[in-house]
Amino acid sequence: MDWRNVIKIVKQHEVSKEHTNCQIVFLRRSNNIGRIDSDLCIQINNEIDYWKNVLKRVIAIIKKLGSRGLPFRGSVEKFGSQNNGNFMICLELISEFDPFLSNHIVQHGNPGSGHTSYLSSTTCDEIITLITTQVTNVIIK
Q1: Percentage helix, strand, coil for the chain under 3-state DSSP, each rounded to 5
Q2: Alpha-carbon Rg of the chain, whole angstroms?
Q3: Is residue 32 left, alpha or beta, with left meaning phi > 0 and alpha meaning psi from -120 to 50?
Q4: For the chain, what is the largest distance between any 2 Cα atoms, rounded to a whole number of angstroms?
């Protein structure tokens, strides 16, 4: 209850043995191992890695097509179509040699709107906008 000396009391507490012990226990418990939600943390990290891998492939294709000035879309935006455009044909080509991308296209390829796949024209346009912004900022600097 001594609020006049609160700074002094807090400083004393921070160097106390009890505080140090509690800090050590807290750090041990904050590690994924031994946490009650460790399985959930592992699942979340696996999900993050999965979508990062999808985005790496998609961004690589967008950068290559953009660097050549090639059109992205065709008249039909479905995998397996003859008229699906350069972006989707590149995804199909890479998926022939990349089991990860092939599996992703099988699972998420043509489900329709409202389903996350990072393979849609909307995502492609967003990535192009982000790249454009970055390039513009570099030019301005």
Answers
A1: 70, 0, 30
A2: 25
A3: alpha
A4: 79
3-state secondary structure of 118: coil
Q: For residue 87, give the amino acid letter.
A: F
Phi, psi of 80 (to 5 degrees): 95, -10
Average pLDDT, consecutive stretches of 10 residues, N- to C-terminus, the chain (141 residues): 83 89 83 71 92 94 92 84 88 94 88 76 89 94 94
Cα–Cα distance for residue pair 140/101, rounded to 1 Å: 36
User: What pLDDT does residue 25 have?
Assistant: 85
Q: How many CA atoms lie within 13 A of 74 on its CB side?
A: 15
Going by C-alpha positions, the residue among 100, 113, 97, 87 that lies closest to residue 52 is: 100
> Distance between CA 90 and CA 70 in Å, rounded?
12
- Among residues 100, 134, 104, 98, the alpha carbon closest in space to that of 119 is found at 104
CA dist 100 → 31, 53, 77, 84, 124 (Å): 30, 9, 21, 21, 19
Q: Provide the 8-state DSSP code for 4.
A: G
